[in-house]
């Protein structure tokens, strides 16, 4: 990517990234050739089961992984055209919160339990914006009100333990949006919450992102949640992207056998009491992954070609799939691709 | 005409001391479960849904005797469970077993699988080790584990396999009722599907009854014959699963169903200020518990609401579908 390209650089561009964690038992290959592009003002979903590398990809991009404990074996990361791996600690602190901010899953662990909400918000705002205490407080109250928090002035004086889980998560979202970052990474922000609160929080994130033109990477294991707010989806399996594309296309015409199985596992699309489709076998051990396609041992369609690593094939309509069975003939007989 | 219920809960109330004063006297109470009535017939699945903190877990823990009831009765096969003693209590206890949410913490990390599975039989006593082992093998195979895995420790298994171990342990006393407290919430969807299929298979083979707690509405709809929707320790709506989910009568059930993420629908237009949170259960609201959050509240809602049959065009299912709302008007 050239620095002076005509187009604005992607908010986040992860290019063919492979990352491993050295352990005594050998290298755990957490990511293998992952490519993720997040355009400006785009909401992108990252879906997969636990351990598939969703969080690792975004934590690598914000350099939140423990230093010296991981190794990038190939590929590159660009945040708004800049390389986070080349930044020093001071630059990183400028970038985190201002350019990129993260909403974590557990709001209780992400907030300091001994400091009032207001003070935590104000310190974030003042770190990045040249504002006095009074002005920063006004900004904080405003953004809390924007997150539909009742009595924001009172909440400013509260400690995190005084708030419910949903309220704490709203405070964290307010904090993430407080310095108008260009990119928000939402790492399972609603997993610990009830469905009614979840719906409200999803609306808040989506509404604010659309209004301010913020890009969002939304990480979740729940494909239904992701499908409701994202423009595009990436489906991950065992450290690789197996399928990507516009949300509706992926849900209506899933191409990769794993995506199809994932959708059929959900009770929503099955008659009551009928057995749900489950995926036989288990996720491969990333210390010693099998050759070829990682999904091959569990895949009903696997054949001899699958012993080789599949490459990503672009399909019409913006979808891309890493599967040999779709490589030659995208209109597979069992999938209805409209003409 | 109807089969006698296997489990029936009458007017169950559970309160916890909330705060004590200087002298140790209780000054406020947490009203966890308020006057709950429910029953489970042999071979049926009853689902309990509700937000966190609505008292679903406390309810089942009171049913199985892990929490002391403040008032009310729990009848197992027509016998009072809480008041039973000696052999009767022991026999009744064998009929109910519980599977918890997180197998990581509900399995002893130092016991091999065969000991874990037969722990309830070991406690009951009277079986030699060889017989226990044989029984463990039989149970392990029935939940989809291999017999060569019997000597392993829980940490050697994945989350889904650990939940299978917990299910095998619950089955060891040949219970008639399994209480499933969020059995798949800690699992990935593909593994969740395996566990749900296993539970459905066991129900067909053994004729088990399930009391299934979950916050996942689509899972309850798939799994259960009947559902009870809880709000603030109270059942606000109950009935056959399809009646409650397809034609909800209570405004809270409607909000809950509208918020469920779905592949087919876009993000629901749920008013965030109304979805709010559960009110404090230290001081119960007068009248309808849901009144403050209810969009369709009218005069009359400030009176206590009774669980009444929902008027239905189809008279057959009518008496079984009940809601605690004075409006009773389907949307």
Structural account:
The complex is a heterodimer of chains A (339) and B (331). Chain A is an alpha/beta fold and 339 residues long. Chain A folds into 2 domains: 3-230, P-loop containing nucleotide triphosphate hydrolases (Rossmann fold), CATH 3.40.50.300; 231-339, no CATH class. In chain A, 31% of the residues lie in helices and 21% in strands. Chain A contains 12 helices and 11 strands. Chain A has helices spanning 54-61, 89-95, 107-110, 117-128, 133-146, 152-156, 165-177, 195-212, 223-229, 247-252, 257-264, 324-327; strands spanning 12-23, 26-38, 43-47, 71-79, 100-103, 183-187, 215-220, 232-237, 240-246, 313-314, 320-321. In chain A, the strands form 2 sheets. An 8-stranded mixed beta sheet of chain A has the order 5-6-7-3-8-9-11-10, sandwiched between helices. In chain A, strands 2-1-4 form a 3-stranded antiparallel beta sheet, covered by helices on one side. In chain A, strand 6 (183-187), helix 8 and strand 7 (215-220) form a beta-alpha-beta unit. In chain A, helix 4 (117-128) crosses helix 5. The longest helix of chain A has 18 residues, at 195-212. Chain A starts with 11 loop residues before the first strand and ends in a 12-residue tail after the last helix. Mean pLDDT of chain A is 88; it is low at 1-5 and 330-339. Chain B has 331 residues and is α/β, with parallel strands linked by helices. Helix content of chain B is 31%, strand content 22%. Chain B contains 12 helices and 12 strands. Chain B has helices at residues 56-64, 86-94, 103-106, 113-117, 119-124, 129-142, 159-171, 189-206, 217-223, 241-246, 251-259, 272-275, and strands spanning 7-20, 26-40, 45-49, 71-76, 79-80, 96-99, 177-181, 209-214, 226-231, 234-240, 308-309, 322-323. In chain B, the strands form 2 sheets. Chain B has an 8-stranded mixed beta sheet, with helices on both faces. In chain B, a hairpin with a 5-residue loop joins strand 1 (7-20) and strand 2. In chain B, helix 6 (129-142) crosses helix 7 (159-171) and helix 7 runs parallel beside helix 8. Chain B is globular and about 70 Å long.
């Amino acid at each position: 990517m050239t620095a002076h390209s005509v187009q604005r650089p992607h908010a986040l561009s992860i290019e063919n990234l492979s990352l491993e964690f050295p352990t005594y038992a050998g290298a755990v290959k957490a990511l293998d050739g992952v490519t993720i592009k997040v355009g400006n003002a785009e909401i992108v979903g990252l879906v997969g089961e636990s351990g598939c590398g969703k969080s690792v990809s975004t934590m690598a991009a914000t350099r939140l992984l423990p230093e010296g404990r991981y190794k990038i074996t190939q590929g590159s990361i660009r945040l708004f055209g800049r390389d986070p791996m080349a930044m020093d600690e001071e630059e990183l602190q400028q970038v985190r919160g201002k350019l990129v901010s993260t909403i974590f899953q557990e709001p209780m662990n992400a907030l300091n339990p001994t400091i009032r909400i207001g003070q935590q918000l104000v310190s974030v705002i003042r770190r990045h914006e040249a504002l006095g205490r009074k002005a920063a407080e006004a900004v904080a109250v405003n953004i809390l009100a924007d997150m539909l928090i009742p009595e924001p002035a009172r909440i400013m004086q509260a400690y995190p333990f005084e708030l419910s889980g949903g309220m704490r998560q709203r405070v964290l979202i307010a904090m993430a949006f407080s310095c108008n970052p260009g990119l928000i990474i939402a790492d399972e922000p609603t997993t610990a919450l009830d469905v009614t609160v979840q719906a409200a929080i999803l609306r808040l994130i989506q509404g604010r992102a659309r209004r301010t033109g913020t890009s969002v990477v939304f990480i979740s294991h729940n494909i239904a949640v992701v499908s409701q707010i994202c423009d595009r989806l990436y489906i991950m399996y065992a450290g690789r992207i197996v399928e990507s594309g516009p949300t509706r296309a992926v849900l209506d015409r899933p191409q990769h056998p794993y995506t199809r199985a994932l959708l059929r596992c959900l009770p929503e699309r099955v008659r009551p009491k009928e057995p749900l489709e489950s995926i036989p076998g288990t996720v491969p051990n990333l210390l010693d992954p099998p050759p070829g396609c990682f999904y091959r041992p569990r895949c009903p369609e696997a054949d001899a070609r699958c012993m080789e690593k599949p490459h990503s094939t672009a399909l019409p309509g913006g979808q891309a799939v890493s599967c040999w069975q779709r490589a030659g003939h995208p209109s597979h007989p069992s999938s209805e691709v409209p003409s | 005409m109807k089969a006698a219920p296997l489990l029936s809960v009458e007017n169950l109330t559970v309160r916890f001391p909330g705060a004590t004063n200087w002298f140790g006297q209780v000054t406020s109470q947490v009203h966890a479960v308020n006057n709950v009535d429910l029953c489970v017939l042999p071979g049926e699945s009853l689902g309990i849904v509700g937000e966190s903190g609505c008292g679903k877990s406390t309810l089942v823990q009171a049913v199985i005797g892990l929490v002391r009831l403040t008032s009310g009765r729990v009848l197992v096969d027509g016998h009072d469970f809480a008041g039973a003693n000696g052999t009767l209590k022991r026999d009744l206890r064998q009929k109910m077993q519980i599977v918890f949410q997180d197998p990581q913490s509900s399995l002893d990390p130092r016991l091999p699988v065969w000991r874990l599975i037969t722990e309830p039989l070991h406690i009951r006593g009277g079986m030699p080790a060889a017989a226990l082992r044989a029984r463990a093998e039989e149970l392990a195979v029935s939940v989809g584990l291999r017999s060569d895995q019997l000597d392993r420790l829980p940490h050697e298994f994945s989350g889904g396999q650990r939940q299978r171990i917990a299910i095998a342990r619950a089955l060891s006393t040949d219970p008639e009722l399994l209480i499933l407290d969020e059995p798949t919430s800690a699992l990935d969807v593909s593994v969740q599907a395996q566990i749900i299929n296993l539970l459905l298979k066991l129900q067909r083979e053994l004729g088990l009854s399930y009391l299934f707690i979950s916050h996942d509405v689509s899972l309850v709809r798939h799994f259960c014959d009947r559902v009870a929707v809880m709000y603030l320790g109270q059942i606000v709506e109950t009935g056959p699963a399809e009646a409650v989910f397809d034609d909800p009568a209570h405004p809270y059930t409607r909000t809950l169903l509208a918020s469920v993420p779905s592949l087919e629908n876009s993000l629901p237009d749920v008013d965030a200020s109304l979805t709010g949170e559960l009110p404090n259960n230290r001081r119960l609201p007068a009248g309808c518990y849901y009144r403050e959050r209810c969009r369709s509240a009218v005069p009359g809602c400030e009176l206590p609401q009774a669980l009444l049959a929902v008027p239905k065009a189809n008279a057959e299912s009518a008496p079984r579908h009940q809601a605690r709302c004075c409006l009773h008007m389907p949307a």
